[in-house]
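Hi F.,

I've been meaning to write this up properly since the lab meeting, where we talked about keeping a consistent format for the predictions we share between groups. The idea is simple: the sequence comes first, exactly as it goes in, then the C-alpha cells exactly as they come out, then a line or two of notes. No screenshots and no reformatting. I'm using this chain as the first example so we have something concrete to point to.
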Amino acid sequence: MAGDFPDHFSAVATDYARHRPDYPVELFDWLAAHTPRHACAWDCASGNGQAARGLAPHFPQVVATDAAPALLAGLEATPRLQRVACTAEACALADASVDLACVAQAAHWFRHPEFHDEVARVLRPGGLLAIWGYGVLRAEDPALDRLLTDFHDTTLAPWWPEERSHVRSHYRDLPFPWPEIETPTFRIERQWPRDNLLGYLGTWSAIRRARAAGHDPLAALAPALQALWPIATTPARVRWPIFLRAGLRP
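Output, unedited:
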C-alpha cells in the first residue's frame, strides 16, 4: 500500500460491518444498465463490501479494494469477488481492466488528482465511474429527527473531520474527471430498533475522534434518546438520501 490515508474505521471494523446500511438494489440495477460492458467491476474503498456485494449479481468479477485490511476482512471472498488491500490512489489493478469503477461513501477521503489518474488508467474506454454517498440520517418521527439532527450538527460539530463537509455538500464541491450523465434519486430506508441505531451512530468518525479525546457523546445522548424511545425493541423508520455522480470515460 502506498501513501497515507485517514483511517477512521479500522478500530470499529466489526461494528461497521454489523451496523452500516447496505444500498438499494435499484442503485445497482441502474449502474449495470449504464455500464456498456460487464466483465469486471471495481469497488474502490470498499470497506466491508456493502457496494461489492450489491455489484456481484451484475458482474462475473468484482474487485473490492481498501487501504484498511481490517475492514476488508469483513467481506467474504468468493470466486466472483476478490479482495485487495491497496489505496485508491495506487491500486493493484491492471491497465484498462474494469468496466465500472465505483466509490461508495468514501470519495471525500481521497486525494482526487491522484485518484483520477488511477481510475483513468484502470477503467476501460467507455467505462463508467460512479461516486455516491448518503446524507444525514433522518427519522420519520419528528421529535427523534430533531434530536438526531441536533446531535449531528451541534453536539458532534467539533469532532467531525474536515472532509465530512463534502458529504454535507453532496459531493458537488469535489472534482469529477469527465462529463457527467444525469442520475436518478435513490435512498436507503430501514426500520431499526434502538440498539441498531446506536450501533450505527457508534461507527461515525466524529464519535471515534471524541472517544479518543476522552469524551463519549453517545453516553450523553442516551437519556434523551431513551425518553423519546422507551421501548428499545420498537422499530423506528429511518432513511438516508443517496447522492450520486457518474460519467463515462472517453
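Notes:
The mean pLDDT is 93.
The longest strand covers residues 236-248.

If this format works for you, I'll send the rest the same way.

G.
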